[in-house]
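Hello again,

I reread your note about wanting to compare the complex against the isolated chains. To keep things tidy I'm splitting this into two emails, and this first one only covers the full assembly. Below are the input lines as submitted, including protein chains and any nucleic acid or small-molecule components. They are followed by the predicted structure of everything together. The single-chain runs will come separately.
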Amino acid sequence: MRGLLALAAVVLLAPLALANNYHYEIAILVGLNAIVCVGLNLLIGYAGQISLGHAGFFGIGAYGSAILAARYGWPPLASLAAATAAAALLAWLVGRPILRLRGHYLAMATLGLGIIISIVLTTEDGYTGGPDGMSVPPLAVAGFALAGERAWYWLVGVLLLATVWLALNLIDSPVGRALRALHGSEVAAEVAGIDSARHKLLAFVLSAAIAGLAGALTAHYAGFITPGKATFLHSIELVVMVVFGGLASTFGAVVGAAVLTALPQLLTVFKEYEMVVFGGVMMLTMIFMPKGLVPTLAALAGRRR
Amino acid sequence: MSGELAQFLLSGLTVGSIYALVALGFAIIYNASHVINFAQGEFVMIGGMATVWLLAAGLPLALAAVLAVALAALVGLLLARFAVQPARGASVVTLIIITIGAAILLRGLAALVWDKRIHALPAFSGEAPIALAGATLAPQSLWVIGVTALAVAALWGFFNRTLAGKAILAVSHNRLAAQLMGISVQRVLLVSFALSAALGALAGILIAPITFTSWDVGVMLGLKGFAAAILGGMGSGPGAVIGGLLLGLLESLGAGYVSSAYKDAIAFIVMLAVLMLMPGGLLGGRAAERV
Amino acid sequence: MILLRAAGLAKKFGGVRAVEALDFEIREGQVFSIIGPNGAGKTTLLNLLTGIYRPSAGRLWLAERPLAARAPHEFAAAGIGRTFQNLQIFFNMSALENVMAGRHLHERCSLAAALLRAPRLARAEYACRRLAAELLEFVGLGAYALAAADALPYGALKRLEIARALAGEPRLLLLDEPAAGLNPSEIRDIDRLIQAIAARGITVVLVEHNMKLVMGVSHHVLVLDYGRKLAEGAPDAVRNDPRVIEAYLGAGES
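Full-complex prediction:
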């Protein structure tokens, strides 16, 4: 729990370092990505599965809430909840047959799923506005619209802390141990009485719901959503954030999201080189630091003592 | 046969041949190293774009094409040597990210070195359409299908008749035994990447006159080639070819008769269906896990 | 009471008949050993008894009732626990967490309770931790409780698997070559451990190659050869059975 307190301190004190709206915007994006990554880490780092299509769930959450709020006039909180549920439902329906697969095959199935979602979102322009996207009404609670970077910053900060708290609780519980066990050795977990299929599905659905919620929030925050948020590239960015920060490390996921969201924003000078740098970072990290940033640093710190 | 159907079949075979070449590249690398090479599509891109660039520099088409293939093979070698080899024995997630990172890197380099515009190559033997079975066929389609058939035949000869090819097959069947027989696993890795890159580049050059080429043409082609490899059975050479052709046909017929808006989704729907119902694909086997 | 009964049990892999026409009964409270040359089908049999393989033919009864389980976790819920010949330790957890994970069947925990860390869960976690620590003591690994599993020596890991299996409170415990790779002193520890487990009322099925261990600790021995029952009976009877000697023990003393 010390880590959680440290994170709370960071969230509380960060505004002192945020000089203008642009900085706040980056911080909010970091927070939203971090929420997705904490959820995705439960699936990849703890349960030992893989998903190369999680941006699809993000997109479902985003567009679901956008469409319900903008085209059908739902109150934003209701559309948020419904969109999150939609992402979770899809994960539940598709999860059972997909999660029977392992390794590369699972990776490809999730990849295919994500791409199909992104194609649907781009093609059904009657609902989604097609490749140009659609505008999204702001989030409103009891008539008060949530507007302005500072308000969103606190909302996202609180939600991030809540997500991290929930994740830490889960990991240290019988359910969490069951997930980690099936990552350690699926056959031994089964023999110990753990229903591996059910637990894999649980991790998948939970991480999809979290991604969907973050997607919906992003849509309302930005006031606009395009299919670019549901692409294969975004799915890969999410996985890289998780792996870069450190698998099976909730705080690693947060750090990974922070570094890989903030850095490209701050280095916009090098916009043209962005892809080259991103690709290079991915490769170098995996070759030299395969455990991820936080566990590698922790191991180095451990050795110094 | 109706003219429309014949048209769809022919265009399906044409694009299917490209998928087959890309899928073969996946199969060769997967067999040699159990790595899924997400950068495969970028070799296709390099083939087309490098040829365009060399052509613009004044070289004759044939020479530009050969040099482009050689360039792609070199890139494949570098990828194998500096990205894949250092990560030998790493987890599935790690290897996937490395090759995806390589793909992104290559795409970024292509945008920098060349540009982000769409380019076309001239058709190899002119544009005059040929009438066949009620459909009109662009001569380039014949080039695509013909050269692919030749390449497949050459590969078959290589793997079944030459020592080098058999060495690669040996590694895919039993790595340790192959090493004990004196086969350099490292060299097999390098050769398989170079070979796959060459195949991908060839595909890129063949298709560029028809569907044009650009810095990011590799993404979809790579992924669809991958779907073809899964359809045919991951790791199976004949499966890659059959999967590629079949996928091309399904895509063409689907776009023609069902929905052209969802043309791109067809490959992934097929892939997802195969993975959920028979993950081994049409020709692939099923590996058992010994406890 | 007959705890486990098998009739006509068989398992085929393509053309290979790994186990064929196997009938046997295991009495409650026994230490029941299964021996046989390599490839005789011993591990296959254990996999059949834990649901990792589906039998090609035959039936199983647990405590007089037909065993209806299909997935391995259902076999575990029926009261069958096991260890593995090739260690299947959860290397991503500590030794204590490995044993706590083994306790899964006895931890009722809803997702909501897990996410919110309900007070009842916190108390249950404490109890689970204590029980796991006790089991580690029981198998002689008390000192290693908080160590990461991947830091433990091989002999400790074999005992960790046993502790993990015991955490599930099985009625029937299957041990797959627990003495493999251990030195004589460690094997004596395993011998004592098996006796202590039996003394707790748990029926033990032991698959082993170490004849001294088998003959010393077993009540009943089943000999397999090429997937079929070659002989069975009390240890001394089996040891002196000429068919067994010919097929397995060979000319020399073990």
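For quick reference: Residues 2-304 of chain A form a domain with the ABC transporter involved in vitamin B12 uptake, BtuC fold (CATH 1.10.3470).

B.
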